[in-house]
Amino acid sequence: MKKMTWIMMAVLLVAGAGYSALLTVDFETNTVSSVPLGYTAIRPSPMTATQYINTVSSTLLGGSQAIKYLDQSSSSSAGGIEYNFVPSGGQGAVKFRFSFSPQSISGTSSNYISIGIGGYSVSNSLMLGSSANMYAEMRVTGDGTVRVYSNGVNVAISSAALNSSNTFTMIVNDTDAAVSYSGYSDNSVAANTVDYYLNGTRLFNDAALAVISAGTTNGLGRIGFVNGSTRIGLDYLIDNISVEVIPEPATIGMLGLGALITILVRRMRR
């Protein structure tokens, strides 16, 4: 019986190791009508009546609060909120997920929030506002459509695919080996590529594009929701932001070996 218990613990250790959390944000501890806590960078500063990112009361995306990302300003000031999810260096492969809801459709496809993941930055500026730092990107537009951008390729998704509550996921692999994940229609992402999911359905797999440079690991470390100047028509709720690490195959193998050694040592002592 003890042997079986140790085996089960080892299996759970290996199975759970692939999804340890690097960042979890649900806005439940924020003060309503105030900017959210814990960000690395936020704009504009100060917030205005027509351009702001504030905490609001809402149960639409689960929980009791979310953030409202609004830009109805004709000024040229950019907006956005970003989070660093590693303290230093960077991560090779991650799963980035969040929920969002369009509150009004009043803009055009040229007005959008860029939601993406890039390299770690110690700078307190909106680094993801630069396309050079955006390794993987999707855009939620003012006309209610979603567009995936990978290596310059625009994969437009019909507005009919959007619900009042939506979940978007990026599986980003900035390593030179394929990594495995679970819970979606596919179970692995090729080296230096990205898988994109909307509400559990894969929108695009850019394995043929090799969007992230091979031979180097840039170090994934920052996620953000940013828009450029004069983006009238943006009004979205955002919630349930999470980033989880996906270990490389060698890491999983070492964890499995460690668990096996633990079992054998316990057995020999008896």
Order of helices and strands: HEEEEEEEEEEEEEEEEEH
Mean pLDDT across residues: 80
Number of strand segments: 17
Overall 3D shape: globular
Assembly state of the chains shown: single chain
Distance between the ends? 13 Å
Structural class: mainly beta
Strand content: 35-45%
Question: Which radius of gyration do the C-alpha atoms yield?
Answer: 20 Å
Query: How many helices in DSSP terms?
Result: 2
Residue share in helix: 10-25%
Low-confidence stretches: 1-17, 251-265
Q: Main β-sheet, in a few words?
A: 8 strands, antiparallel
Protein model, in words:
By secondary structure, the protein is mainly beta. 13% of the residues lie in helices and 40% in strands. The chain has two helices and 17 strands. It has helices at 2-16, 249-269, and strands spanning 21-25, 41-43, 51-57, 65-71, 79-84, 93-102, 112-119, 134-141, 146-150, 153-157, 166-173, 179-180, 188-189, 193-198, 201-205, 220-227, 234-245. Strands 1, 3, 4, 6, 11, 14, 15 and 17 form an eight-stranded antiparallel sheet that branches. It has a seven-stranded antiparallel sheet with strand order 2-5-16-7-8-9-10, with no helix packed on it. Strand 3 and strand 4 (65-71) form a beta hairpin. Helix 1 packs antiparallel against helix 2. The longest helix has 21 residues, at 249-269. The protein starts with a helix and ends with a helix. Mean pLDDT is 80; it is low at 1-17 and 251-265.
